[in-house]
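Hi C.,

You asked whether I'd gotten around to modeling the 409-residue construct. I have! Everything is below, sequence then structure, no commentary in between.
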Amino acid sequence: MKKLLILGAGTAGTIMANKMASHLDLDKWQITVVDRDGEHHYQPGYLFVPFGIYTARDIVKPRRDYLPRGVDVVFSGIEVIDPEKNQVKLTSGQVLGYDYLVIATGAHTDPSELEGLSGDGWRRNIFDFYTLDGAVALSRHLRNWEGGRLVINIAEMPIKCPVAPLEFAFLADWWLTTQGLRDKVEIDFVTPLPGAFTKPKASELLGDFLDRKNIHLTPDFNVGSVDAEANKIVSWDDREVPYDLLITVPTNKGDESIERSGFGDELNFIPTDKHTLRSKVKDNIFVLGDATDLPSSKAGSVAHFQADILTENLLAAIDERPLPAKFDGHANCFIESGFNKGLLIDFNYDTEPLPGKFPLPGIGPFSLLEETRVNHYGKMMFRWVYWNLLLRGAELPIEAEMSMAGKRR
């Protein structure tokens, strides 16, 4: 019996398990999925927890409920991947062999990478929202916070969901206004980027939004340390930004097993062909989602589009055919802007976000690079789409390859 092994049962791994189970003959193929625990988290929902919009119940469900019947599921950490032996050793001691391997081990935040971040101020007046524990702790803190200087800082790129820190700033502006605290709070968005976002056109638009909401932008700030005693962050060129409340996006890294296996980059992301999603480690290993070193966004929409491409390419590899599908870096992101409004951007490796209508040309219902209530509702409806359609590998009305239909240059 042939063996397909999928490491990781987050968004990318779960979609791939569902898609491959529908294409392969399970009498001839054993599909095994490995993840460290049995909880699946809707990570975009972390953003809403500090403001009381979502609770943990809304964004955590059993992994097994979203994996197909006939697929073996193993709950364990990963010790090491051995490409030469086509084996993976788990932390439980179990060794799993494979004919084809899909690595979808994701990314996680590592506060220890930044000097002083995880010291005395951690979860006292320094919080993250990229973990459920951090988002819940921040929610508790905000209930009794009386104002001051709120600093949102990105430690370094790349990060999961690059728009999320901006969304946090916009939602903080909204929430503080509803609490009657906005005039008691200065908000500073501190980023290593030269502007508000990675793409120049969207960066200009989002920078204007920061100005309109009286949120100060500090660009090109490469943080070197956190002085928790003096309540300030310090850049490598000795600039300082003081804070009363620091919201940090710590360094994002790939799984530690990639480092132990000896084939990741300095942040444990895996060298991957940016079009075929075949690893540069060995031809029978493929990578998708946040685990790759690709120049695309680390976002749920990207995992979805990559899974469509990888399904076609993996089936071709199994049949010993050339890999036909090409991933173009397509990313599609709703951006919650507060006060029940939102924006939408759609872009790829080569094309900047452009104005227009999406997904139907001239009709929408969503508007690109424009703040609307419909975009907000699209953002909020996506949680249902995620649990009921996306994870299960359903065909959605958005092609993996970015379309120029409905866009204006």
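If it helps when you're writing up: The first helix runs from residue 11 to 23.

Thanks,
B.
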